[in-house]
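re the bet — no i am not wrong, look at it urself. input seq straight from the record:
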Amino acid sequence: MPYSLDLIQKVINFVENVGTITKADHTFGIGRASIYIVISL
């Protein structure tokens, strides 16, 4: 499932400022694997 650019930016900012992918996973309802992929881009 593709995610909007706005959501991707929010997730990246969240991880950079709050610091954990697990919290971002629960907050935004996006799987951890998807978050790892987005961050690696």
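see?? Residues 5-18 form the longest helix (14 residues). told u. also Residues 5-40 form one domain. so pay up
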